[in-house]
């Protein structure tokens, strides 16, 4: 694993960041596309297979990413960054981390509560730890959708802030993640 200098994240962190970001955008697109079909159609279920598998992958990738983050201090922000922006960035990043665990977890519980096991790309079935539970299925469907919307809005804010730092402030903050 490569070490970061004082100005950039490690290669591992950068690869994890961009891999997870692309998987989130892919899965968000798949989820929106999937919802254009009736939920009892074979097409919907075929697309759902990939949506659930990618969601499981995101969840699995977040574990080493979180572990890395807990063991390392991120590169310092430039002194020109106002305290309120540094605090806002910290809260935003923390919230994104929480959502990147909760969104797939809510989707997973939703599938299990509907008595639909989740397969990881057909390679292995994910553990089944609850049985059919219609009220829980409905609750986790609403929760999953709400969390996804929150995640999408916060990702837009994160991207907007990165672009501001890259093209307006030109302060090197976006360069820490390879932008």
TrEMBL record:
- What are the residue boundaries of the Cytochrome b561 bacterial/Ni-hydrogenase domain, all occurrences included? 9-177
Membrane-related topology note: Multi-pass membrane protein
Q: Which cofactor does it need?
A: heme b
* Keywords linked to the UniProt accession: Cell membrane, Electron transport, Heme, Iron, Membrane, Metal-binding, Transmembrane, Transmembrane helix, Transport
Q: Where in the cell is it found?
A: Cell membrane
Q: Which residues cross the membrane?
A: 12-34, 46-68, 89-109, 143-163
InterPro entries xref list: Cyt_b561_bac/Ni-Hgenase, Cytochrome_b561_oxidase, Di-haem_cyt_TM
- Which superkingdom, per the lineage? Bacteria
Q: Does the keyword Electron transport apply?
A: yes
Pfam family of this protein, just one? Ni_hydr_CYTB
- What family is reported? Belongs to the cytochrome b561 family.
Q: What is this protein called?
A: Cytochrome b
What is the originating organism of this protein? Answer: Paraburkholderia solitsugae
Its organism's taxonomic lineage begins at: Bacteria, Pseudomonadati, Pseudomonadota, Betaproteobacteria, Burkholderiales
């Amino acid at each position: 694993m490569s070490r970061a200098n004082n100005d950039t994240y490690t290669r591992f962190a950068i690869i994890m960041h961009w891999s997870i970001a692309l998987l989130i955008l892919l899965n968000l697109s798949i989820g929106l596309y999937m919802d254009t079909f009736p939920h009892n159609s074979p097409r919907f279920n075929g697309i759902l297979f990939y949506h659930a598998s990618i969601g499981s992958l995101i969840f699995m990738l977040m574990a080493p990413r979180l572990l890395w983050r807990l063991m390392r201090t991120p590169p310092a922000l430039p002194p020109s960054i106002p305290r309120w922006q540094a605090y806002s960035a910290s809260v935003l990043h923390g919230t994104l981390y929480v959502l990147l665990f909760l969104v797939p977890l809510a989707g997973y519980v939703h599938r299990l509560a509907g008595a639909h096991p989740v397969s990881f790309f057909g390679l292995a079935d994910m553990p089944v730890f609850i049985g059919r539970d219609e009220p829980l299925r409905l609750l986790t469907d609403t929760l999953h959708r709400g969390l996804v919307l929150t995640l999408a809005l916060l990702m837009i804010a994160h991207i907007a802030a990165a672009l501001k730092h890259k093209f307006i402030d030109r302060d090197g903050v976006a360069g820490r993640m390879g932008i």
